[in-house]
Amino acid sequence: MAELVAARLRRMIVRGELTEGEALPSETALMEEFAVSRPTLREAFRVLESESLISVRRGARGGARVQVPEGTVAARYAGVVLEYRGTTLKDVYDARTVIEAPCAGLLAERRTDEDLERLRAAVAEAERLMDDPSAFIRAHMEFHALVVELAGNQTLTVLNGMVRNIIDQANWSHVDLDAGSPENVRANRRGFRAHVALVDLVAARRGEAAEELWRLHLQEAEDYLLQNRSMTTVLDLLG
Predict the structure, then answer these.
(1) Which PROSITE patterns match (predicted)?
(2) With contact defined as beta carbons under 8 Å apart, do 13 and 55 qualify?
(3) pLDDT at residue 60 is higher than 70
(4) Could you give phi then psi for residue 229, rounded to 5 degrees?
(5) Which of 38, 45, 57 is closest to 3 using CA atoms?
(6) Are 1 and 41 in contact (CB under 8 A)?
(7) What's CA 207's distance to the chain center, in Å?
């Protein structure tokens, strides 16, 4: 019964019948609505809380409030699964290429003027931060996420978020190791040039060329980031 109650409330959340931040009805009202006991209702709450669909505050002023589904929840769990399976970082980088490269092509074919403005603004922001390794790598990672977002495929966006959670941490670890070194500066400038070139191809609506350029850029980034031999698996990075 707890699973059935959780399923009903879950559907109401994902359909927007219950909105973010909205308080659920009182336990008494829900027990009456679903014809269940208090322990059963609280078990349903625990299920939804574990899925980050509600937050429960205990005490006199407590209660359950709705949280919208976020990709970060899936990303964290995916990281645990990949750790358990002994997945290599190369495996994750290869998956990123499978997701991102076609998205670059889709973006070039489908882009709007607003998409192009957002890409150009992101490139300009990264250029402004070129001399600050930490800020630059953050802008660099956000550009990659933007390419997938603007491609317009929600499934690929969610899958990319799961992979990106790991890639971003690998990037931060690399920044800690060699930020500001000649090799790091060269890699950053090479990556920046690839971003500028992609925006030009997107502007020209050259889908195949955009996909091929992005595939090459991702491979170069993978080769650079995997130079740290002390971290070869997801467990090495996240564990």
Answers:
(1) HTH_GNTR
(2) no
(3) no
(4) -70, -10
(5) 45
(6) no
(7) 24
Block residue for tokens 């909205």: 22
Q: Which residues partner with 40 through β-bridges?
A: none
pTM (whole model) above 0.85: no
Three-state DSSP state, 45: helix
pLDDT 10s digits, 144-197: 999 999 999 999 998 998 899 888 888 888 777 777 788 888 989 999 999 999
The Cα diameter of the chain in Å comes to: 68
